[in-house]
Amino acid sequence: MIFNSLFSYPNELVRQVFNNLCIDKTRLPSSGLTSAGIPSFIGEWVLDKKVPGSGSLTSSELEMLNTFIQKAFPRKNDQEEIKFDLSQGHLRKLIALMQVRVKLKPDGSLDPEPIAQIPILNLENCSIPIDIIEANRMLLKQGVWGKISLSQTHEDRPVEVIDFEPFQCSRVDLDAYARCRSHFTASQWKDLMLCSMGFNPEHAAYNQDAKTWILARLLPLVERNYHIIELAPKGTGKSFVFENISSKVTLVSGGKVTPAQLFINGRTKEVGLLGKHDVVVLDEVQSLTFDNADEIIGPLKNYLASGRYNRSGFADVSSDCSLVMLANIELDSQLRPRNEENLIANLPYFFAETAFLDRLVGIIPGWKIPKFQREATACQVGLKMDFFGEALLAMRSDNRYHNYANRHTSFGDVTIRDQQAILKSASGFLKILYPDLNLTLMDYQRDCLEPARQLRQFIRNSLYSLDDEFRQKSRDIEVKATEKSH
């Protein structure tokens, strides 16, 4: 019989409701998989297949797992050994990310024989049967993790993909997922979401405010074209969830970003990251540099506004990819931002262009999230990361949540962009916290609308300090939950 526990994390309830879609989150940290560079959404899949159970791994389980990892997961320095084996006619099986690309012939026509790429082995021209691609069309986008069988049957032929078994959860029954929500209280469900992300919801440092802003990191996954920035001191785990939740989410660490990388490669005609992924994360944007800034900022502003971009000589590319920018911020002795009136003061110059800043949905106040410590790691039963990521991403195209927000939100004197941003964030919080849409107006105001307002208020504050035009309206955004007549 399923029951709700009101006082502690409901481990048994999670197991009863989600069955094989959940996992004891203490398994992964004790496995060594993460330190081997294996993302959580793959690591948890491997654990459940090879050493199912609960609690930290035993010495015999660790030994079994380590043997499997050494055989199945190639490291960078294994490249040449694997290539040598293939050159000698041996079959090699490994677990890795694989992508497929369609080549252009010199005359500009499309080659009917696509090629597979395996980045970890630096193999870029593997032949692959068409039926494998047809069965796994996500290979043509951001790629898919799975068990790959490789062979080179003739020395004058490229390496061939003989077989492929995908690992990622490919389909989620959203109606069933929403029905699961009814077994939990609002507080229990929020804690389940935190735990599934990899955070310990019972850690004393995570008060309700901190939990809200950690969950806000999921908004770009559940909402299409959701563009946001998080400002936080080092060590709050800004990039943690994005690195581990899905191959449909990609993270670009600080340094140089090129137009070819983001938009489209002028030489190969290959679509860039914004056209391939559901979420692109630019980390450490405070140190971001561009070879040719105008070639990036202009198309990027267009993309933030319309969901389309182009480079000269190419047709428009449409995408619903969300863009997340993560930046470090300095705090004062009270752990508040040093320049609270203009939070983007120390970021690259283009953030101060109001036409750019106004196109962002909001700013996540990462300074309100405690530093990530070892004891803050999830140790309860949560959703498996691959299922969790797919469930969130599957909600992107469901308009019921935006319709609910639009029907139950009343605005004061605000701009159209303010309204659109707040409705988008409120819709996202609904998807994360109330996927069954079973809530009261008070729930909506407290858990969805007010956090959405705060996210946008940080943008409004900076715009207010940067440009007189934005002082024509009140500084504070007024918004409330209401029951509008149909």
Automatic annotation (TrEMBL):
Pfam families: BrxL_ATPase, BrxL_N. One of its GO terms (biological process) is proteolysis. Keywords: Hydrolase, Protease. The keyword Magnesium does not apply. One of its GO terms (molecular function) is peptidase activity. Residues 17-150 form the BREX system Lon protease-like BrxL N-terminal domain. InterPro entries: BrxL-like, BrxL_N. This is BREX system Lon protease-like protein BrxL. The gene is brxL.
